[in-house]
Write a structure and sequence with these properties.
The complex is a heterodimer of chains A (168) and B (557). With 168 residues, chain A is α/β, with parallel strands linked by helices. Chain A has five helices and seven strands. Chain B starts with a helix and ends with a strand. The chains are: A alpha/beta (168), B mainly beta (557).
């Protein structure tokens, strides 16, 4: 076991020392219309991307996405950002995701991660959890949980990304 | 538990791939950067004795659950492991989670449509009615497969998956072997000229088989049990329809008292939605569908399939943790309707910012069945009519919630629900012991958000539950102050003011505060927590009452 810890530590230190970049992992999901969708297709022509993990049973998640929905049009106009809302609802609630999303009139791209495969690859412990992706398709920022007003700071970062600036 | 030689072998293979250049896939991979990511989660509690709430005495005083996942990827290659530690497991978790180790590790690669995973993996076929291996770490549920999985994507809408493995059983593996294959065809992609067809069709089928030695001295048990299912998803414009039917061969088990009756299940779901309105209607019939890789097991252990409850997953504490419903895998017929719509903004009825309305109702019944007295002959146990609700109601719930932003500083949510749970079936044990009969309750919630400044908010929740049965009336109040994006503090008090037993009219005060930064979150809590059911996806864990200090750390990197 000591060997393993040693290997892990060495690997971690070399990776962190060499400057970490993080690509979006490739996972097979379905989109809200039931079409198969691989997460490597999460693209936005060099403009920023917000990947947000949520669930229909998660109050803060819905509060966050409903708050962003109020200003989303503005965000898109100013920065070209696109939001991918990844639902981790399992078979119990997955059939209710599309009626919910349409019912509250979100304009996001919505993906279904029914067995938490994408969530696992991105190391998400609890929802909500969001990731920001830069023009090169690299994840450059993440944030766990949601508190009223978090979208203000999030949008500052999105604007920086849209201008090609470095965040964090 | 994982032998550490095995892990070293896997890691060696993985690192060797860095230096292999003989094949194309390796050449491509050599150019990709090595990335290492993962997460860490720690839940711990220092327990105080509290005889008032009948909190169990904890000999160790301090208990801790912790784990870390590490995933290394280099292009098409990926390897990962999870270290878990329970020294000892928190109250409410199965004490067989004891000690530390690497119960999860895998290696996988993708090569032109072929995906191979060796080691541990999670998988789901269709709705999971026959196969779902998954993890709910907060429930202590993890039925990960340990074996081999191969997936192949033909690239024309046809996909197949096959797997062989044994399931995780705490720090060991279950007795039975699971073999399974699944195929799915997207007809719009597979059939030439169907691509732009307005009707979208997806069909799938799977076969799942388990093997377990028969060492029962009294009965001749089937060592191989097969099960098969078919599914379809059809969409046309704003309508969609999903269905799955599953059939399981005779599978005598502890769950069904060793009867030889085959099992069957049907799930149907229909939706219609357009911008501002969505409706979903679902129904299911479950008859003798408990399916485990060890026929002697119970609780949430070694389940091969997933049978979620067809009820709303509530979020407010009193609605979520006192009387939630979990599927009765031995048999039930259930229905659910769910409507979501938005009242237009800037109207007299919708208000300045619009109003969201959610209406939901669910009903679950026992099977319409007749007992057969054949214990010593055919052992069928009973016969049941297909898709016919029996006379026994198990659960019912009707609820409505409204959400409206009043102005720039105030937002309100209100929820009302009326529910019934048949405690002869669900057997919840409260402070008064298990109530034998139907529990009826009305629950009302008012949730008010006051935005003091753009990043400062105060939220208050007022919840009430009224019931003439079991523990009687409850009230809950939550006050939460958040300072975005880093700080939060909250206090909650739950009060069982209407308990008929006067000494059980108890307050459960609890305070919590914490700090969030990026992918890290640390929180501290102190106080009493009531006994209740913690449920995810209709699977529940009983949490005993406790008093003490909790420390939680999560980190994603």
């Amino acid at each position: 076991m000591k060997n393993l810890i040693l290997i892990a530590t060495l690997t971690l230190s070399t990776v962190f020392a060499s400057g970490q970049t993080r690509a979006i992992p490739s996972v097979d999901l379905v989109d809200i219309d039931g079409n198969s969708f691989n997460t490597s297709e999460i693209l936005n022509d060099g403009k920023p991307i917000l990947i947000n993990f949520w669930a229909t049973w998660c109050s803060p998640c819905k509060r966050e996405l409903n708050n962003i929905a109020e200003v989303y049009e503005e965000w898109v106009e100013e920065t070209g950002v696109v939001v991918y809302a990844v639902s981790i609802d399992d078979a119990r609630n997955a059939p209710k995701v599309k009626p919910y999303v349409d019912g509250v009139a979100w304009d996001y791209k919505v993906l279904l991660d029914v067995n938490s495969d994408f969530r696992r690859q991105l190391g998400v412990v609890n929802v909500p959890h969001s990731f920001l992706v830069d023009k090169n398709g690299k994840i450059v920022h993440q944030h766990t949980s949601y508190q009223e007003g978090d979208e203000i700071e999030l949008y500052e970062k999105i604007k920086k990304l849209a201008n090609g600036e470095v965040i964090d | 538990m994982l032998k550490h030689k095995q892990l070293l072998l896997i890691l060696s293979i993985f690192f060797l791939t860095n230096v292999l250049h003989s094949q194309n896939v390796f050449q491509e991979v050599a150019k990709d950067p090595l990335e290492i990511h993962g997460n860490f989660n720690l839940n711990s509690q220092y327990y105080l004795t509290d005889s008032v709430i009948a909190a169990p005495t904890v000999a160790e005083k301090f208990l801790i659950n912790g784990y870390a996942n590490v995933i290394a990827t280099k292009g098409a290659f990926s390897a990962g492991a999870r270290y878990e530690s329970y020294e000892n497991a928190l109250l409410g978790f199965d004490p067989r989670y004891k000690g530390s180790g690497f119960p999860y590790r895998y290696f996988s690669f993708d090569n032109k449509g072929l995906n191979v995973t060796v080691g541990n993996f999670y998988e789901q076929f269709g709705t999971g009615m026959l196969l779902r291996s998954y993890e709910e770490r907060d429930l202590g549920l993890d039925n990960a497969m340990d074996g081999i999985r191969v997936k192949y994507d033909f690239g024309n809408g046809i996909r197949v998956k096959g797997l062989v493995g044994r399931q995780r059983y705490f720090f060991a593996k279950g007795d039975g072997i699971v073999r399974a294959i699944d195929g799915e065809v997207n007809l719009n992609e597979a059939i030439g000229g169907w691509k732009d067809n307005k009707l979208k069709l997806l069909v799938g089928a799977n076969f799942v088989s388990k093997y377990q030695e028969d060492n029962n001295p009294d009965l001749v048990l089937p060592e191989n049990v097969g099960a098969y299912s078919g599914r379809i998803t059809a969409r046309y414009a704003n309508f969609s329809l999903t269905g799955e039917y599953a059939y399981k061969e005779n599978d005598p088990s502890a769950d069904n008292s060793n009867i030889y009756k085959p099992g069957q299940g049907l799930f149907l779901s229909a939706s219609y939605s357009q911008k501002g309105f969505g409706i979903n209607l679902s129904a299911k019939h479950i008859d003798n569908m408990s399916f485990r890789s060890d026929r002697t097991e119970g609780f949430n252990n070694l389940t091969i399939n997933y049978l979620p409850a067809l009820t709303k997953q509530h979020t407010y504490n009193l609605a979520a943790t006192l009387y939630p419903y979990a599927t009765q895998p031995t048999g039930e017929v259930a229905f659910q309707g769910d409507i979501v719509f938005r009242l237009k903004k800037k109207t007299w009825y919708g208000g300045k910012y619009g109003t969201r309305i959610l209406i939901n109702s669910s009903l679950a019944y026992g099977l319409d069945s007749t007992g057969i007295n054949d214990q010593n002959t055919t052992r069928q146990g009973y016969s049941a009519k297909f898709f016919s609700p029996g006379s026994q109601a198990y659960f019912q719930d009707i609820n409505i919630s409204l959400e409206r932003k009043l102005n720039k500083t105030f937002k309100v949510k209100a929820m009302y629900m009326n529910m019934m749970v048949n405690n002869l079936i669900t057997r919840y044990g409260g402070l008064n012991g298990s109530f034998g009969g139907k529990i009826y309750a009305d629950i009302a919630v008012l949730d008010v958000m006051y935005k003091i400044r753009p990043k400062h908010a105060l939220r208050a929740e007022f919840q009430a539950l009224w019931s003439d049965q079991d523990m009687g009336d409850w009230g809950t109040m939550v006050l939460e102050y958040t300072y975005s994006p880093h700080w939060f503090v909250a206090i909650i008090d739950q009060y069982n003011y209407g308990n008929k037993v006067e000494k059980n009219q108890i307050h459960y005060p609890y305070g919590t505060f914490g700090y969030i930064n990026g992918g890290n979150r640390v929180s501290l809590g102190f106080g009493r927590q009531k006994a209740g059911l913690f449920c995810v996806g209709g699977v529940c864990r009983v949490v005993p009452a406790s008093n003490g200090l909790t420390i939680t750390v999560t980190s994603s990197f």
